[in-house]
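note to self: dont lose this again. the chain is below, predicted strucutre after it. 201 aa total, dont forget to put it in the shared folder this time
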Amino acid sequence: IPTLVAFITGIIVLADFLIYNPLLDQVSNSLLNWALLVAAFAFIVGLLNVLIVHFTRIIKRERGWPYSIVLVLAMWLVIIFGVLDPRGPQGPIVSWVFRYVQYPLQATLFAMLAFFALSAGYRAFRRQTVDATIMLVAASLVFLGQAMLISEWGKWFAAIKDWILSVPTVAGMRGILLGVSLGVIATGLRLLLGMDKPYAD
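---
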């Protein structure tokens, strides 16, 4: 029965994208609204699960329990002030948390990722393969073009950088997007045909 329900629901929603029919559109919108309700309840269940896991860690004094205290306090702070304030997430306290806590943490994380990417690139270049050499040359040219050298060479490097970013890079990105799209289509077909049943676990 779950497979049949998933198949019928998927076919109806998919047909709504391909066929214009007022009745089909209404049924599809109702199904999507139900999916949003289910997702909302799933979010609540996930929130409760996070609280249970971290409360258990705090009570048992497991490794990293002070971080669990910070997480729980921050979570309740945002939820309480977000609900009590009529302006919701636009309230001053929630905005302060996002501006001075969330955004700096995100910037720090991305800065750390840059160093990890640099380290991974260094390890790749040490292998001395043709692919690594091409990557090293391309990265060096892009870096020199991005450095804004004030000379005749700077214009050449800038032109090469623009070509690398607009031709090979875009071609690679399109190939990746095509592969991802085909993978999504294949996964959707497997779900519709009942070959994969994540909802039955």
